[in-house]
Amino acid sequence: MTEEKDISRLTDSEARAELAKLAEQLAAANQAYHTNDAPDISDAEYDRLKRRNAAIEAAFPDLKRADSPTDQVGAQVADGFGKVTHAVAMLSLGNAFEDEDVTGFADRVRSFLGLPSAAPLEFTAEPKIDGLSLSLRYEDGKLVQAATRGDGATGENVTANALTISDIPHQIEGAPQILEVRGEVYMSHADFAALNERQEAAGDKAFANPRNAAAGSLRQLDSSITQSRPLKFFAYAWGDLSAPLAETQFEAVERLATLGFSTNPLTKKCNSARELISHYRSIEEQRATLGYDIDGVVYKVNDLALQSRLGFRSTTPRWAIAHKFAAETAWTRLEAIDIQVGRTGALSPVARLTPVTVGGVVVSNATLHNEDYIRGLDNKGEEIRGGKDIREGDWVQVYRAGDVIPKVADVDLSKRPADSKPYEFPPTCPECGSPAVREEGDSVRFCTGGMICPAQAKEKLKHFVARKAFDIEGLGAKQIEMFFDDETLPIKEPADIFTLAKRDEAQLTKLKNRMGWGEQSATNLFAAIEDKREIAFGRMLFSLGIRHVGETAAKDLALHFMEWDALVKGAETAREAAVAWRKADEAEETERHAAKAEGRSAKIKATRDATIAGCSVPITSTAAWQDMTGIDGIGATVGLSLTDAFANAQERAAIDRLVAELTIIPPEAPSKESPVAGKTVVFTGSLEKMTRAEAKARAEALGAKVAGSVSGKTDLLVAGPGAGSKAKKAADLGVETIDEDAWLALTEGL
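User: That's the sequence. What structure does it adopt?
Assistant: Structure tokens below.
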């Protein structure tokens, strides 16, 4: 498909805008799939979008968002279930889509471990079941807890429901004292068809596919409903253990089978990427006759000791990958094009479709990305879809690929209505009427209304009360919708939440006397709000919904500044430098376009330097900017958003009103248990006893920050043979330098 611009030709602005759009789409998809059990696009589309996101991040590493989808696992748990904190995080898997990706996975494993190509390396390959992940905890052989994956760290307690599934033993013998078995709850095709027949006979809604049926059945508050559903369970992994199951992945799964768990008979040991791909083809050929849904094949390093050495990235293991199957498509009518306004003000066109089943799921919406995409053009005016535009009334081909909104692949011009007209993208915000501007090099229009735009204000409030933000019990998206539109007791900005009880006292008709409320629910809400007047610095910053300031970036900024006032002062002081930086960005892009048009090499650095010098930025402002953007993982993108937020008079006033209602708790200082905790470490030269990736992972596990270059903030340089300019710069700056042996001695046993 050619509807998206080649990544190598994206400008910084285009890449930044697309990453923002992808983050929004993928977050919505995760919510639909993991929390609501109601995905509206296929796995393949989700995977494609996530892969494009990762590719753009690789090409533009400085633009990686703080809330990057590559750092997310699952979604928040739903209301109604008790929460379970996983003793060992339930992470997702990285994905492979082409044979080259599988070869690349094997090569990366060898490279990380420092294994030559001739050295033996065994893998396992097993079908990837399309169901709901479940963790079963056994203590002294008894099932004591069952939990869904949730967001990877916290899941839902579904123990009573799991006990009704015949494939799940209540008691096992010969197992370690603590054994956490992990696997997938699913429903066979035959059982799914029979269930839907019963649903329809009873006048109930039929399920879209077996995965939805299995997930919805397991997550019933009434366990008797779960018991009536034909659920099955495949075991394939483990979490918390008091003793090892075996020395290899394959033997450990065999041990699970001897303990009474169902394991997949198609699991096979392979000795090369070629064998992995061959088994993938074999499973793919059997896919239609398996009797249950799979969406790919999972490959794992077989040796568990090597798995331990390889370890984990932030959300995925280095020792495993999922080789996914391709997408499916369908044709339907595009009934209307609606414009949605997001939290950041982005205007996103959405196709409203005549409902159609795609890949087993009924879809009624599709993303249309932006106005260029609708016109049949990329951001440079070059044709996509053969130059076919998209119009209301068109017959369109849609496909699902992942867990995000489906996408339009093609348009059938032969079925286009004779009276159809090209779609005109609105120049103003449909919510507040403010101008919707599209800046040079940007593919997205943004509403300029800010706080006066009800769509932005409402979405920001929903973000503010989300679980990873203030997480106020009894005040979710539904309640925000109600209070936002309430004329007598409105919530228009975050500070209004904390004045709600006081304002309610002054009302003739109290909240407790309103429809849908009672004395207990109103009292509980006010108490829950009071309980959140003390809030951690990082959560407070994340809750504001500042563009690009995600959960991780908020925590990093909190750890750096430690005090809220220090952050505010830093943002204020860095403002002039931020303005200069943005002007330099604009000048750089202008120079790049001009150079391309004139057939010459762009003088990027000279252009940036001249622009910044012409701004006469005070040295104090420059130092504050460098201090903020020099934080590991922050950079200019976050710095610009942060300084913009505190420079906007309306937004700053709203933030100040909120802060006046709160006590912001500083973060705990970094742990000092490790001799390198809180220090910035740089590795250079050739490491001989570990790979660079292994050394970096080890340092980060001990609380250190690993940087790629030496600066005045570097605390320690670990230099192997061949260390060059970095070693010289470290010496010039007086940075402590040690060799690899000293590094190993320093961290040994930690």
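The longest strand covers residues 328-341.
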